[in-house]
């Protein structure tokens, strides 16, 4: 343990957590190694691939280049915390129907990013979906299934809203 | 022997049904279990000291006093009896390299592991690694394969006479054609060195299980049984003392199809320290130390008649195989494969190809999705377009002129590849129609308002997959596939457990093998459980590679289930007091006339009420291990034509893909959704090969990319919304007529996109022949022309 | 790929932050959103002993109108600038540029001040704020000073910041109603670093005619005045202006920068 360890308190998936963390520990490692929330995956640890995307105070962020110590007082939501989230539930259903995942390693980050697109860009056409999702890399699916899944959820929500 | 049927209407949940995947729910909830997710009590983390130079003698390793006992080198491993990796090929003339798991006095590529550091956390292990001082006496470097084969080039392995793992020569007798052919076109063609970049890096957790007295290595691998065999050889440990387990594997594409030095080190450290240890490959380690695929160079000439009918192909090909021969595929598989598959799907008579597997100061080459085919297709399909250009015909017409026609199937080509079935020309005709070539030609003629240039390109290939014994024993490498095994077991509650030795890393096997079993037994998918990726629980298999799993393990599952079906039928008939001849297994029940008994009831009888069984019941019971080989073990041949329309921006050299069509024939599809997914994903990787991915090296052998900011893989906006058209010619040799399909999507895109770019650049009078076709490559070609003019 | 062990402080006031940043006994670095520094830390390209997180300093997170300028706190995120909950004086420049910086998950954390302090030549704000004629307010223990963007960015990852100083505010002048704006980035992938950036502003009411060639191998190349806007201005003329600059390291770079500039200018002229 680091001589510089700091005590932080934050909310993780709705539960208050108090922890002593070395400042160099990034949020992804904190969630995975200390909270055992291994659904958040590390694909590059330099902020490009998006596999580690989680929500901080409801907004998508890279957990690999955000240090846990900087999240004192924040609310963090991981894929495990989206079990009861209605948009995530629609996305899970659509991802499965449209074969939007193969190995599943990028999937948690994809879901977090896709949820943000659905909520923030209800008007998105397919090119807009692709641009909005471009911060998440997938090496298996060729993206077609993911785009179709997000399309499906956006369309269904617009139909229901209309 | 495989029965041929074309089951699968698309309905239900058997063969041919588009059913959702059983593995999805856990992965969508973040409940998968990848290697990095595993933590064992007392587990230590490993970090490697890696060579910062490409070629050097190690003159000293200084370990700070406070870290003694936490740092290990080859001296420690060797003293412990660890042997270097030897991946030998039986092909005549092959030169053997020995790869110690940690450098033994010499380093041969940047990123080669030199020492391993053990600590409570990865961060602390990296701290220790940073404190280890290694003294390198640098040696001259081979950073380019063509220079490495010139006289006087520095030698990667001192005791070799040169830097060539293996030279092969295929065919010959082309001098007469060369002298007389009306059309002769030559090209220099090159593909770049790439990284495979599964989103999950490699990872290992190793520990010694004191209870069962076994080394347990949980590793992110495509081939657990082969890793076990390799570990056994290097650790000098009986295979029975090793268990290799693959959990969820986050993509592989070939990178996880080898025995890795880091696996050996982790295993040894776990035993030495009697503590669980974990190593996870980070992205920089992957990009630097695992830049290990696809680097080909061709000098190729095509001979044709005035219509574009191929008369012969002549080529010299070099593959940069890197510093060592990898286990099990060896350093020569890729280049030697070039010699045997360069002719592609075409019917021509004269052929000569010489190949070199060149040893350089780069990471060892590993077969990447499509293996040599991506490079071969890139070369051959450029030649078809070059011939078309020379004879003034459309490239698709020249393809039709030369493709093996359906009436010649099955067909043995010039290198004696046995093409099993299909209509290759029809794939071209459908691709021409689907891409709407005429429309693009009209638009080309009219010109674009933004000044971009439109081009259309095609590429056709056929792909030998699910290679059998006949193919592999010739290579003489540490792995030869024979009969693939599957075990099927009815559980006491009437469910089914399947055990196979292949390993899914995204291929959806938990679903598709269940579909195969359902097709035979009628047991619902939710009651079928696949156990795979564990040498302790599954039959031996060479693993998942070469688009083989559905053909081989799927065939074995079907075979095992058929045997089970027969046993179930006989017991069921007995329980209904019917004669065995009149009873049928249907929809999960054995039926005789109006009577029926469910598999669940039969299972109950076998396990819980054996007194009710017939006296002559098969003593094997409701558990079967069956082996399978297709009717021909030369492999299946799937094929495809890819068609692409691009817009090339001649001012900035960028290429936009406007439309992309794949017309492919994978025979019978077990799950069309999964097949499509494999194709989409393959094309995306092919787009990367075509336009983005390149690991550049400087003259000192330093890799010039080490992050995703400088090694670009295609994302959402770079990959087109591919359209797929299926042709369904069942293989005559396999269960259900399936053919291997996992790799195919990645084969043709570089060729098709290159041909499209050259079609677009035609008005400028320039061509590009090297992948990736980056803005720099395209602008240089254009500038070169301008400069020359 | 883990950062070296470092200490960390998260002061609530600017004075407290500057106090920490002025320490000479340790290697200290300020950090805001950590979207550029985070990767460098993980890659151990940066190895500070103390990281001073300035994102909790309330005054650095404000946006306000001050006369004919918009004053943006250094710790305002790209996402906030994208979403536009402020009196935009730039007629859409700020939100539209913010929207094409990297990816939303990065924009949610990354800050305008952090981007300037990092001074990657390919960064959007480095070039756009130069074209807009913004000033950077730098804070140190000795007080504040205002530096025009053209003097703030000195080269690749080089700024006018002295040890112990941080970017406190960015002052963006209001554009007039007739101002026109062009922006073109040459990226191989969405969100990727630019290989050539053209940023152009014409604001006749304020006498501004400015072209910026960015993502060069040095500081942004600024071409002020009417030269490139004349009707007959050719690609050759643009190339001539860029010749010898960090936008002209080799013929292909020069060509690409020329095209980026040409396309940005075309947006203004159309």
From TrEMBL, chain A:
Transmembrane segments: none
UniProt xrefs under CDD domains: fer2
GO molecular function, one term: 2 iron, 2 sulfur cluster binding
PROSITE patterns: 2FE2S_FER_1, 2FE2S_FER_2
Top-level division of the source organism's lineage: Bacteria
Keywords, alphabetical: 2Fe-2S, Iron, Iron-sulfur, Metal-binding, Oxidoreductase
Protein name: Carbon-monoxide dehydrogenase small subunit
Organism: Azospirillum brasilense
TrEMBL record, chain B:
InterPro entries found in the cross-reference section: Ald_Oxase/Xan_DH_a/b, Ald_Oxase/Xan_DH_a/b_sf, Ald_Oxase/xanthine_DH-like, AldOxase/xan_DH_MoCoBD1, AldOxase/xan_DH_MoCoBD2, AldOxase/xan_DH_Mopterin-bd_sf
Molecular function GO terms recorded: iron ion binding; oxidoreductase activity
Domain Aldehyde oxidase/xanthine dehydrogenase a/b hammerhead: 29-140
A Pfam family of this chain: Ald_Xan_dh_C
Superkingdom, natural source: Bacteria
Keyword annotations: Molybdenum, Oxidoreductase
Protein name: Xanthine dehydrogenase molybdenum binding subunit apoprotein
Organism: Azospirillum brasilense
From TrEMBL, chain C:
Alphabetical UniProt keywords: FAD, Flavoprotein, Oxidoreductase
Superkingdom of the source species: Bacteria
InterPro entries, alphabetized: Diverse_Substr_Oxidored (IPR051312), FAD-bd_PCMH (IPR016166), FAD-bd_PCMH-like_sf (IPR036318), FAD-bd_PCMH_sub1 (IPR016167), FAD-bd_PCMH_sub2 (IPR016169), Mopterin_DH_FAD-bd (IPR002346)
Keyword Transferase attached: no
Record Pfam families: FAD_binding_5
GO MF term list: FAD binding; oxidoreductase activity
Domain FAD-binding PCMH-type intervals: 1-177
Protein name: Carbon-monoxide dehydrogenase medium subunit
Native organism: Azospirillum brasilense
